[in-house]
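Handoff note, outgoing to incoming analyst
You'll be picking up this chain. Sequence as last confirmed:
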Amino acid sequence: MTRPEPLDLSVTRTVAASPEVVFDLITDVGRMADWSPEVEESAWVDADGRAEVGARFTGRNAIGSMSWTTKPKVTEVG
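Most recent structure output, in case you need it:
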């Protein structure tokens, strides 16, 4: 099986909340499983667990019988 190329993914949404509240929610990677039907578990790799450029976290995901792991890296914080 050929390994797929890495994804460059971007999502834009408008929500009725302050930027600080949204930032705190989306950078709490331990809660991803609360909101995503495919995320089973996620956690920061770095001990300080902060969303900063270069930080990494792990993810374990599944859809039906298919499962996979990820190790995303934060490339931008704004």
